[in-house]
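Fold it.
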Amino acid sequence: MISSIFKNREERCAAFAEADLYPVLSSEFTLGRPVEEVFAAVVRGGARLVQLREKNRGKQFLYELAVACRAPANEFGVLLLIDDHVDVALAAGADGVHLGQEDLPLAAARRIAPELLIGNSTHNLAEALAAAPAGADYINIGPIYPTGTKQVSCGALGVEAIREIAPRAGLPFTVMGGIKARHIAELRAAGARRIAMVTEITTAPDIEQKVRELRSLMIDKQS
């Protein structure tokens, strides 16, 4: 099995700090295109942080997908993250795992995966404040806008949640949930620098070009 070019948690955190667009890939939202092809397109387009998320497929499928994506991730210097499953992330040589509030507790994940980059989905200030002491490296704040790609009980938080949560969380953060190109300016004005998207990227006719366009919107507005 191919190892990651990122050798430890420190290197992974440093690479995360430089990321901007955060594609989240799921086979149910690719218009029938293989996820491996979508992954290749997003990394050619310049994404440096990619999550594989399969809510409705088994662990074997996710493991084999992650193994297949490891070589192109290394070629382009991309952090490869797995949604939900610490065991799959470790077995496949991924760089990190993203955990929800109902997944393996952060502290337990950190004990068994000390070198992985660990992210945590948060939906309010209390969850965000609990993430750093438990061992998370970053949090996601969301869903910002209404989304159809994931079932959530809290509803859309709105952009104001970024201003409320991010300054107090004590961790780097991403934002996610119903985000389209037209939202980028508003999100960046609220302080977001790492923006996760699903269908805006994965249903585009030309995924590589779409990634380039979205990153240009983010880069052009950096101060």
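Strands lie at 21-25, 49-52, 79-83, 96-99, 117-122, 138-141, 173-175, 195-197.
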